[in-house]
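Page 42, continued from yesterday. The earlier attempt failed because a stray header line got pasted into the input along with the sequence. Redoing it now with the clean sequence only.
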Amino acid sequence: MLDAYLILLGALIGAFGSAVGAGGGFLVVPLLMFLYPNDSIEVVNAIAIAIVFFRSLSAAAAFGWQKRIDYRSGWLFAAATAPFAALGSYAIQFVDASHFRLLLGLALIGLAVQTFFAKLSKRKETRHANVRRELIDADGTRYRYAYRLDAAVASSAVIGFIANFFAVGGGALRMPALVQWLRFPAHIAVATTQFALVFSSFVGVAVHLSSGALVPHLTRTTYLALGAVAGAQFGAWFAKKSKAVVLMRLLVAALVIIGVQLIMGGIESPH
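This time it went through. Structure tokens are written below.
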């Protein structure tokens, strides 16, 4: 019976994560900690990153069929994120992240409020934009937008570091950066974020496989992954059919969830 519940949970996480461009780890981690309280945080994180990988791979395939992935920008984001994500993982060995969780949680709540009340700008590009993109999706919708290369690289570096330093998903952080600051259309931002997540999560899976943290829990991971893969397809379909404002409201919910988790972790951690 628990196996069926794991598949269902994976499907729900996969659908929500794909719809808003998030990895879904911020949902998997607390659920696993509740269901398996005796598991170490390393095991929980290992399973969570594996779910993120399979879910993002499924979502990227669906968005690829929709022709809404900006592959050129996606490769750029992945390349800029990787070294700083590694730096974040390294830095956590020397700095107690619990001292900063409360501040980051409050900042994300503030970002959620700002995103909720912000109107989707009609301006198609940032000031001094030097990368111009044009995509036509499978339905024939044309997207034109432009952004600054240095801003894209800088935001990817910061997101990569924060995501690994605080063990939170980078997808939900990247979405407001793409839409609010780099002026990506919301639908392209969701799809491109999923594409970039495939590579960052794959690195995490490889690390946890080599450390042995994931291998004893492959059965549990498989059930969650099966649900996540199926749910990701529904989430990609939902994103395609939804208006941009709906996607942004769901993103606000994701930011609030992550923010509350960080705040609670900051309050409960000994200082």
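Notes: DSSP finds ten helices and two strands in the chain.
Reminder to self: strip header lines before submitting.
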